[in-house]
Description:
The chain is an alpha/beta fold. The protein has two domains: about 5-55 and about 355-384, Urease, subunit C, domain 1 (Roll); about 60-345, TIM Barrel (Alpha-Beta Barrel), CATH 3.20.20.140. About 25% of the residues lie in helices and about 30% in strands. The protein has nine helices and 21 strands. Strands 1, 2, 3, 4, 5, 19, 20 and 21 form an eight-stranded mixed beta sheet that branches. Helix 5 (about 200-210) crosses helix 6 (about 230-240). The two termini are about 20 Å apart.
Amino acid sequence: MKKILIQAASLYTEQEVFDCGDLLIENGIITAFGKTPIKVEEDVEIIDGTQLSVLPGFIDGHIHGAKGADTMDATKQALATIASVLPEEGTTSFLATTMTQTHEQIAKALENIASYKGQDGEATLLGAHLEGPFIHKAKKGAQPEQYIVPGSIALFEHWQQLAKGKIKTVTLAPECDEDGLIPYLYEAGVNVSAGHTTANYEDMKSAISKGVRQLTHLANAMSGIHHRDVGAVGAAFLLDALRVEVIADEVHLAPEMLAISFKQIGSNRLILITDAMRAKLFPDGTYDLGGQGVHVKKNRATLADGTLAGSIVTMIDSVRNMMKIPEVTLIDVVKMTAVNPAKQLNVFDRKGSIQIGKDADLVIIDDELNIKYTICQGMIAYKE
């Protein structure tokens, strides 16, 4: 694997910026960085970072598909398509996200994730995000109602065995957990995210006491703020134990709601996700999502009844939308796209920030937030 030296760039770590800094990649790992120029041998690829910024690669913890492929296709080609196209938007790691379907279809998707062998120069598949079927029918969103079931330890254990332990996040409705699945998942080290839920504020406090540590796609498919009960959205604002997913496509959340969410929750707890479906990077039209027709028009994906059905936003466009908020800086972006998801998924020891010894997952952008390079584990996966 060729060494790569990035020279004279602004390097964004978790807490600070090294202006006009160098960064060296060897064998897929960050081995040196800082303001002091790095001297190397001749067999090194040089990237001129003048007037460019280097950020840790984006981690998308909630994505169903892209470019015609979907996790529920349960094929290696589908995962390869998603993994190969994500570096174009700066994403270097992701969770392939399932949806509410038959037990057999979910099982096939999880077995496929477990057996997938990634290729060099593509985004790393970190595992699976199980979205449903343990959700509330009243907040099903685009999840097919006929396959929704109560939380079940036995069913999860079966799926986790098929997934070879690769289910990293579970989205469920806390009020539908009669089997004690939440504390079971928490003890097992699985990220438990409340979503598609009617839970009120007290329900959310109780859920946190049992092990819920995340909220799935803020304000969508959950109880909103009312002046006598602030609901799950109010819990996101007030309860520091929660990290909070945000779809920053300006469709699922209006620009004003994005601004309110940032000001109330802050970059230490927000996590940018795309929740993208197979129509991402494709033209307007009708696409399949779990056996349902999804109509895509002008950046909005909906079922026939108008229900939002995931997004078609890219991570870099999510960043651009967040950067419209005057208070948001690139340091905030680093936290929302890399640090927070890495910590939430227990991979911060090797991903999520620019540090010596971590995987060389990087995105290099210009002042207009255009991606110039994406580097996945030390290999250039995308170049403008």
